[in-house]
Amino acid sequence: MRALRQQASRTQREGSEPQIVDRMVTDGEQPTEPPQLVQAATGIAVALCLMISVVHLMAVFLHVAPSNPISQRYDEQIDAWINPVFEQNWKLFAPDPDAVSRQISARTKRTSPTGAVEVSAWFDLTAVDDSAVKHNPFPSHTTINLLRRAWTAYLDTHGNDDQPRSQRARMVQEYLRNIAVDRVAGYRGDPFEAIQLRVITRAIPLPATKDGPQPAISIPAETRELPWWTVETR
Known about the structure:
Number of helices: 7
């Protein structure tokens, strides 16, 4: 009888061990591999970001580098990628500093509840940018260049008649208008239906040389008022 009891106890103990092992496996103590689909999607996203970064760097380099057969062949594609968001105002070997200063102002127009047309006073957008840069050791690139470069791009695409004759010219016009609308709306709470820009261009005096200041050249300031542009009520 004692032998039968020992054998039955041994059989019960051996039969319970697999249950303990199975329970340990099913409890999730061993780490599981991430799904292959997630790994593949992550790899594709990383490769796509790297490819876009390489294309962007190559486009910027060809844009600022001296003219060469590659930049001449793909000139339209490079301009479409760079302008107007990534527009550059420098060259790799030949910087071209501005010789004039421009004061860009804006005024708005709206229709009052009585039906009368109300035109606001001129709001100096350039002065706002200058005040944000003055005494700021780390001024924002947007504050320094956004409005100024938008106006330069407008000059390049419109000339003197303010008529957009290409898709890029219309895009630049909307870009300049949107910048002005956002700046005015950020400082004035009154709604408006249209906006107009005025640009006053003044020549920058020549820097002094070792022989002293150079003779001043009297060049009258040039004032240019753009047409009224309709905007959504702000």
